[in-house]
Amino acid sequence: MRALRTVAVALLLCMPQAAFAQTERAAAAPAGQIALPEDAIAYIPPRAIGAAPLLVLLHGATERPQSMVARFRAEADRRGIVLLAPKSAGDTWDMIADFDRRRSQVVRSRSARLNVDPPRINRAIRALLERASVDPARIALGGFSDGASYALTIGSDNPGFFRTLLVFSPGMLYLSPRRSPGQRVFLSHGSSDPVLSFQASKSRFVPQLRKEGLAVTFREFDGRHELPDIVLQEAVAMWLDMPSESAQSSASEARQK
Hints:
Elements: H1 24-27, E1 32-35, E2 41-44, E3 52-58, H2 65-79, E4 82-85, H3 94-97, E5 105-107, H4 117-129, E6 134-144, H5 146-156, E7 164-168, E8 172-174, E9 184-190, H6 198-211, E10 215-221, H7 229-240, H8 245-255
Parallel strand pairs: 3-4, 3-6, 5-8, 6-7, 7-9, 9-10
Antiparallel strand pairs: 1-2, 2-4
Helix pairs in contact: 7-8
Signal peptide: 1-21
Protein name: PHB depolymerase family esterase
Domain Phospholipase/carboxylesterase/thioesterase: 51-233
């Protein structure tokens, strides 16, 4: 498999296709939480049989990986999803630290700093692949708040690795020169968010992503800076193409907005 690209620096690791082979070590990996390099954590659910889907989760500013794993653990248990939550080197992700987080914007500059956290994410992924069997066709990147903004940047520049992006309440959109037509994006935002602008997501980020050719599902919900259960479930259902009856109607309405 091609190694992960970054927008502003050369690629950091080489992860060959063989890394995804189901080795005896990976097959025997016990269910539960695993500590990984760079303060990352992973969670392997009891139902993770064979090559499992992998969801990489990026935390918000000042948060820790544990919060993301805890938030998605129930859905991981229900669907057999392996979770990986890297940790940013600082209070937030390196690119975000270079910009005003609370000023919603579409950034086109090539000067964003992307040389600290991408290597950490790559090392965490490599370490996980030594312990769990993962389906390379079902790898998604998700994030909340600052983590959502960073997921859009890293994910949209690596469409061959992350085929789906699950983006919850982002605050900015960094547009890299690389295009990824057809890549799926689930983007949600609370209409009363007091932290990061809902209107920026609805009126700027979503139209721009669609203009770039990404297949965007936008989910507006009546709430604040949060991730409701129903929205989380709809996002995962879209990724795995297994819509539940409760989620199917809401997701259909969201795509029409």
